[in-house]
Structures are given as C-alpha cells and as structure tokens.
Amino acid sequence: MEGVGRRFALGLRAQLALVALALLALPWAGVSFVNELERTLLAGQERALLATARAVATALHDRPQLLAAAPARDDAVRREAELELQRIAQSEGRLPQAAIAQLPLEREAELAARKAQEEIGAILRGVQRTESRLWVVNRRYQVLALEGSLRRATPAPESGALRSAWRRVAGWVIDRPSEDFAESVPDDVLAAGRDIASALQGTPGTRTRRTPDGRTVVISAAHPIWNGNEVAGAVVVEETTNPIASLRSDALERLLLLTLAAFAGAAAILIGFATRLSQRIRRLRDEAESAIDARGRLARVAAGSDAGDEIGDLSRSISAMLARLAQHHVYLESMAGRLSHELRTPIAVVRSSLENLKLAATPEESRTYVARAEEGLARLNTILQRMSEATRLEQALRTAERERYDLGAVVRGCVEGYRLAYAATPIVLEAPARALEVSGSPDLGAQLLDKLVENAVEFSPAGEAVHVRLQEQGRYALLAVQNKGPALPAQMRARLFESMVSVRETRAGAAPHLGLGLYVARLIAEFHGGAIEAADTAGGDGVVLRVHLPLAR
Amino acid sequence: MSRRIAIVEDDPAIRANYAEALRKHGFDVSAYGARAEALAAMRARLPDLAVIDIGLGGDADAGFELCRELRALSASLPIIFLTARDSDFDVVSGLRLGADDYLTKDVSLPHLLARIAALFRRAELQSEPGAQEDTLERGDLALDLKRFSIAWRGQSVPLTLTEFWMVHALARHPGHVKSREQLMREANLVVDDGTVTSHVKRIRRKFQGVDPGFEHIETAYGMGYRWKE
Predict the structure, then answer these.
(1) Which residues of A fall within a CB distance of 8 Å from B198?
(2) What is the pLDDT of residue A139?
(3) pTM strictly above 0.90
C-alpha cells in the first residue's frame, strides 16, 4: 500500500502549486469583464453616432435644393464611392436608368451645386469630430459631401524603454488596433450598406463592418433626410472602433501585468508557506522516528510542540503518545520487580506451611513430597531473586555514591574469581598494567563484568576460552568480553539490552533465564556514563560485548 | 515462664504459620493483624520480642510507625522486621528506627528461630552484666559472642545481628576471602549478592562512625570480602 502511495506521491509544495491553478479563474473573469465593457462601449458609440447623424439630418431637413445639386468636388474617394455606388445600385435595379442620363449638368446648375455643397460641407464641419467621417448621400446614391477622416492623429510614441519593451511582449498576446488601414469607401459599404438603404427607406440604421483590408472595424450610422414626407437623402456618420479597441488593449495589458505580478507574488508566498510547512512536518517526522532509540528508550518530541496550529497539535499528541508508551515501557521494565515483590507473600505462606509440616510428626511418605515441594520453592525463589535484581539495582543506582577507582584492579580481581567459579572454561585476560581510572562504583563495575562473563561462559562451547580484554581507547576504557559460539540473531541485536529480552532457547533443567543480565549490564554502563554494544566477531564464529566507559580526569 | 513473642502481620496464613511454629518451640505467641490492635495490646503488656511486618493492611508504612511507638515504650525490647520489602531504602529505614534486625520473608523458619534465640540471649546477657564472657579478639576488634556485640578500640559498634555474624565470619579467619554466599550462610541470611554488598557497606560505615580511618574490610572483586589486619 505504501509503495502505491509513494509512486504517486506529490510533495506538499507540488500539491499547493496545483491548487493554485484555481487562481487562473481570475484572469478569465477579468477578460470576460473587459469584453462586456467593450460591448457596452460599442453600443454607446453606436448610439452617439446615430445621434450625430440625426443632428446633421435635422439641419438638412426640408432643404431639397441642397440635396438636388450634384457634387463637383473631385474627391478621389468620393468619386470612386459614387461610381461604385451607382454601378451597384443600378445592377440591383434600385436606380432608374434616367437618373444616369440626367447626370450631365449645366453650368448654372453646377454653380448652384457647388454652393449647395459648400453649405452642406459647412454644416458637416460644424458637427464633425476628429475621428469620424460624415457624408451625405442623396436618393441617387450620390455622395454629395464628405468630411473628416477615420484616422486618428498618430498617437505619440511611447516613452520609456521599459514600457515599450513591455508593449512588445504584451503584443504577442494582445492585439493593438492599427491606424494603418484602408480608408476608402469600399464597394460593399454602399452596396450592401443596410444602414444607408434603410435610411433611404426612412428608418435610421447602424452597421458594423470591417475595413477592406480587415485591419479595423468601422461603425456607421445613417439617418434619413426628410423633405416633407419623402426621403431626400441620408447622412452617414462613420467611426472606427479603434478608441475603444485601444482602451480594451490597455485594460487587457494592465490585466496581464497585474495577473503576472499577482501570480508571481502568490507563487512566492505559497512556495514559501509550503516549504515551511513541509520543513516542520519533516522535522516532526525525523524526531518521531528517532524518539525511540536503538535501546528502546523514549525521548520527547520537541518540534513545533508550542505551535498553536494542527502541526503543533500533532506534535503534542505524538509527545503524549510517546509519554504513554514510555510509561508502559517503565511499567514493563519494573514489572519483573513488582511481580517478584507481589509473589513474596504467597511464597512465604507456602514456605512456612511446609516448614510447619516438617515440624509436625509426619509419615515418611509425606516427607518425600515435602522435600520436592521445597525444591520447587527454592527454584521459584531463585527466579524471584533474579526478577527483582534489576529493580533493586535501579534503586541502588539512584542512591549509589560515585568514586574514582582503577577498573584494571577490579577486572584482574574478578577474573581471578571467575577462574575459580568457572573451572571448565579457560578465561584469558588482556589488561594493561597501568591503572585505568573511571568514575563510578567498583562493586557495580564488578557486577557488570559478572554479567558479561556469566553470559559469555553460558554461550561458549565446552573447552573454548572466554577472552576478557581491557584497553585504553582515547578518552575511554574499552572492556570487551568475547566468546565463541552462535552469532547474534540480527533482529535481536538492538533489543539485547532491554529488560526481559533473551536470545536463549529454554533448556529443561537449566537455571532460569529471564533476560535481565544484559539489562543490568546496560544500567551499570550507563551509570558510569558509558555505553554497551554487542557484535558478532569478525570471523562470525562468536560474539563480543563491548563496554565503553569514560576515563576519569 | 515461657517468653512472649508478639507477631504483627496482616496476612492471616503467614501469621498463623509463624505463630504455630513459634508455639511449637515453646514460645507464648500473640498474633495481631493491624497496627492499632497490636499497639493497644502491647501497651497493656509489653512482649519479650516483637516481629513486625512493614506493610499492614492498606498502610504501606504502618510497621515503621509501630516500631517507633514500641521503641518509645521500651528501649530494650528486641524488634525484628519481617517483610516482603527488600529494598536498601526499606532496610535502612527499618534499622534507623531502632529495629534489631531486618529479615525478608525468604527467611526460613529455622533461620528465624535462630535469630529470635540469639536476640533473646543478647537481651538476657545485656541485663545481667558480669556474666561469663566468650570473646574473640583481632587486634583492635573485640567480639562478644554471647552478647552479640562488637567493640572497636574499646568503643561499642552498634551492629544488627546479621551484621554481627558477617563481621564474625570475616574476622574469624583474617586474610581469607569470604565469598558472598559464605557470608550469607554464616549470617543465616537468604538474600542475593546485592544485599550482601549493601550490608558490607553499612558495616563499614558503622565502623567508620567510630573510627573514620577504618579500612579493615577489603573487597576482593569478583570473589568476596576479607578482613585485613
């Protein structure tokens, strides 16, 4: 299960980065808003154009003489438009053939026409704005007057290298409206010009179209000019959407800039936050992992323990859990001692009863059973004594006084004793002649060596020597007890020095073994400020127990 | 007139067993299960010897209190603690309160009887000075084998019976190492090595109380102890 989890695992940072993608909804909403704004502005522009057209048309109402005149000014654009207009209108059958025939005007009429045009031009100039083009068309689709240009004055070149650089970059994403477009009145403006057509029918109309080169969009509004009850012509007002488009581009550019800045900021904050979070969690994990050391001792978890958030909570509950575990551990370690204590009274009952039984005059047969019961009781007693040994030692360590003593003298004396006690096992001693002074208790030091040698002798095959080696190693005295025999089971190596852990197989009839000996050794080594470890020998055919005790200075 | 022994022990089975065993040996035994009851009875009539358990009923230290109260009633009444508690701390506390000996319930009845007999002997002889003396002298050390008392350079060293027997075992053969097992046997004690160690420590301290320069009990590491002259 863990393997699967690991394969798809994303760090907290990556997860937060994914979550941050939700921020992309913000620029999308911004773009939608800008588009909506643009639509509103375009509708407003349309209405404004229509209003202008109506104003001009109002000025031209009921002045048929102005509209009757033919245009004379040789404006290339106008002429082109006019020709096209007429050609197309004719082909569509909107214009009577006669109208063309009437085109050639007489000189007087021409003069009148010029006057009329000047008047119309004056009216148009009066309402004309910089970015709009106005023209007047008569019923025959003749453009009578045309004023203004669609082009705006070229905008001032952008100042600042940074700003223009940004413009160039933003240009990849956002189109800016161009002022470089074909201004001519294209064929279809008039031909397919629904606005003009509908104006000439008597209804004002508007229309949005692209310029012939497609570079920009033009909005046009046409309003009929009334002569009494009939339509005499139409006023057309045109404007590009460039001002609005450039507003939109500006807004989008700013939006892009803001979005990028916000993203960068949010990303920095999120990554920082996630980094801190995962650092804290990692620290907590590391501490939790090392809270139980190789010897089963429990430490507290300090990481984030005073933080008010969930990680602090977690840290505290891990600490609480460890504390409960430590209590349990202490309970287990002291259980042997307490058990032996609790068992003392019932054993005393059994013992005193047996002894009373012996004092009473009993038949020979029952004496045998009493003897067996006493034998069992003696064994039970030995077990109890071993069980309480660790507890008693712990109590003794609390009150023990420290003194400087020569570890070498203790080891030499003890080994003398072992040679007597374990006659079947040769004990080889290597110890320096000079004193190795340590700080602690010589009695406890002897007890430590007792445990190690007892252990080594029990594991050693008959006739094989047990080696006791004492040497100086830097600031430590190294005491090593080595025996031939089976290697240590790997999974037991770290737990060997815990209370009631034994690697021994139970043998019938052998002295009871509770796995307290090496635990006692560890307690004494720790009392001396040292440490104890177990390892297989280099050849793998034995075990060596090493105790490092700091030398007294 | 038979000697009167009071047993204060909260476990009825043990109480009955000890009481019966002592009665069989000719003692007049009264057994009590609680501290108040025992104290009231002993106030009325002091026994010749008291055997007290430390934990009585729910009170873990009732025996200590009782010991103090008995000691107040009589300075010479022999008092033995007989308890399941065997920590050094309890032993020291019990002896400091003026008990003459401290035994754990591992002790066998013959051992208990030997101690009781020895204590009676000591009490008897202390009350009649001028009796015939049986002493062992080793330099500055003088052991009175009848009174179970020890003097160092003429000054009395206040040892318990157990401690007396240990010193006796060591001093009888100066220079010879006595193993812990041997010391236990000689002191009629069934305890483990650690307890022997703490007993020896206490003995040394008591001698040092009389003579700060006392260094005659030597540890032979891994083997035991010996008396050095």
Answers:
(1) 396
(2) 77
(3) no
Do A549 and A423 meet the contact criterion of CB atoms below 8 Å apart?
no
Q: Which residues contact B208 (CB under 8 A, 6 or more apart)?
A: B214
Q: Do A395 and B87 touch (CB under 8 A)?
A: yes
Q: Lowest-confidence range among A159-168, A359-368, A516-525, B43-52? A: A159-168
Would you call B105 an interface residue with chain A, using a CB distance cutoff of 8 Å? yes
| Probe site for chain A from B7, B221, B225 (most A CB atoms < 10 A) | B221
The answer to whether the Cβ–Cβ distance between B219 and A415 falls below 8 Å is no
Confirm if A191 and A179 have CB atoms less than 8 A apart.
Answer: no
Which residues, listed in sequence order, are joined to residue A156 by a DSSP beta bridge?
Answer: none
Contacts of B65 (CB under 8 A, 6+ apart): B35, B59
**B197 with A420: Cβ contact below 8 A:** no
Give backbone dihedrals phi and psi of A133, rounded to 5 degrees, phi first. Answer: -120, 130
- In CATH, the number for domain A291-399 is 1.10.287
Kindly write down the DSSP assignment for every residue of B144-197, as one continuous string: ETTTTEEEETTEEE---HHHHHHHHHHHHSTT--EEHHHHHHHTT----HHHHH
Q: Which domain holds residue B84?
A: 4-127
Sequence spans of domains, chain A = 14-149+160-255, 291-399, 401-550
Of B73, B82, B22, the C-alpha closest to B52 is B82
For the domain spanning A14-149+160-255, the CATH number is 3.30.450.20
Q: How far is CA A393 from the centre of its chain?
A: 52
Tell me if A220 sits within 8 A of A189, measured CB to CB: yes
Residue from A417, A436, A435 nearest A427 by CA? A417
Measured between its terminal Cα atoms, the distance across chain A in Å is 54
Q: What is the pLDDT of residues A366-420, one digit of tens each?
A: 888 888 888 888 888 877 777 777 777 777 787 777 888 888 888 988 888 888 8
CATH code of the domain in which B193 resides:
1.10.10.10
Better pLDDT: A201 or A175: A201
pLDDT digits 0-9 by tens, A2-38: 444 455 667 777 888 888 888 888 888 988 998 999 9
Distance of CA B139 to the CA centre of its chain: 25
DSSP-derived pairing of the beta strands B4-8 and A542-550: unpaired
CA distance A47 to A65: 29
Is the ipTM, as predicted for this complex, more than 0.85?
no
Residue range B86-103, pLDDT digits in tens: 777 777 777 778 788 888
- Model confidence at B72: pLDDT above 80: yes
CB proximity B108 to A under 8 Å: yes
